[in-house]
Amino acid sequence: MPPLFYQDIKRKKEMKPRNWKFWKTENKNDHSLNQGSSKLPKPKDLPDRVGMHLVTQLKLDPDWVWSLKGVVRPTTEKGNFEIRIFDPKEAVISDVKVTNFNSLDDFSEMILFAGCFNKNNGWVDIKRTADKAA
Prior knowledge:
5 strands, 21% strand
């Protein structure tokens, strides 16, 4: 039987060196973990300007409007965002999990309103997309 220190040396040769700098990736161009859709924000309450537009310009019930949620995606212009507005209660009933802007691509019937807004100057352009929109 070989001595114990010989077994330790043999085991060390078989072990691969560990990458202790786990925060650094080997391939800098590998974006498999960082998909573009994962960087999009999750559903939130409507921005104030958008909610005010729905209430004042489209004459919708304020209680219903402020119960809605929106998912946004930035555009190429600074301060401009695309928005999709949906009813979270309908999403739960339909068993649709809305995680970001792109998650509504397959469920267009869930989108009540869609459009763009600019958070810097207050410009809002929202259109109805569903017949269910009050």
